[in-house]
């Protein structure tokens, strides 16, 4: 009975800690958003939008890794804009699309979005906007600085959370 009581208390503690430790936090720091607009809602246009996204994020990750501050990040993205156009155009061309990409850096409205346990409020943000062709299709967006894009664009999107308390419970049950 003592063993069962300990397990129940540890389990309750684990769920209480997990519930309070994973509370949403609102992101209030300055940020640079990233927005890709597909040519249309055609399945192929939507698929190539994601290929462009992947190529651009892979290109930007090492170049933005050491950038600090919104102004520096924005300045670096403006400097890299011609390379982003070339990269997007090359990705489009390699996948059989004849339309081209354009890149702008400006203010854009974004709805609220959740990244893991962080919530970014809706509002106008400085954004790098890549339009593919007419740019009239569904879009994809994230936060480039601070680098929240990389939280969702990597792997299959699933995470495995570990709890020391649950590890203790599992170890105690096995013994």
Blueprint of the fold:
Elements: H1 2-21, E1 25-27, E2 32-37, H2 43-64, H3 70-94, E3 101-110, E4 113-115, E5 118-120, E6 123-132, E7 139-145, H4 149-152, H5 164-174
Parallel strand pairs: 1-5, 2-6
Antiparallel strand pairs: 2-7, 3-6, 4-5
Helix pairs in contact: 1-5, 2-3
Summarize the structure.
With 175 residues, this protein is α/β, with parallel strands linked by helices. Helices cover 47% and strands 24% of the residues.
Describe the 3D structure:
The protein is α/β, with parallel strands linked by helices. The chain has 2 domains: 2-23 and 160-174, no CATH class; 28-152, no CATH class. The chain has helices at residues 2-21, 43-64, 70-94, 149-152, 164-174, and strands at 25-27, 32-37, 101-110, 113-115, 118-120, 123-132, 139-145. Strands 3-6-2-7 form a 4-stranded mixed β-sheet. A 3-stranded mixed β-sheet has the order 1-5-4, with no helix packed on it. A hairpin with a 2-residue loop joins strand 4 (113-115) and strand 5 (118-120). Helix 1 (2-21) runs antiparallel to helix 5 (164-174) and helix 2 crosses helix 3 (70-94). It is globular and about 40 Å long. Mean pLDDT is 77; it is low at 9-22 and 153-168.
What profile does the largest beta sheet have?
A: 4 strands, mixed
Question: What is the string of helix and strand elements?
Answer: HEEHHEEEEEHH
Radius of gyration: 21 Å
The proportion of residues forming helix, as a percent range, comes to: 40-55%
> Using DSSP, what is the number of strands?
7
Beginning-to-end CA distance, first to last residue: 15 Å
Mean pLDDT score: 77
Principal-axis shape equals: globular
Strand order of the largest sheet: 3-6-2-7
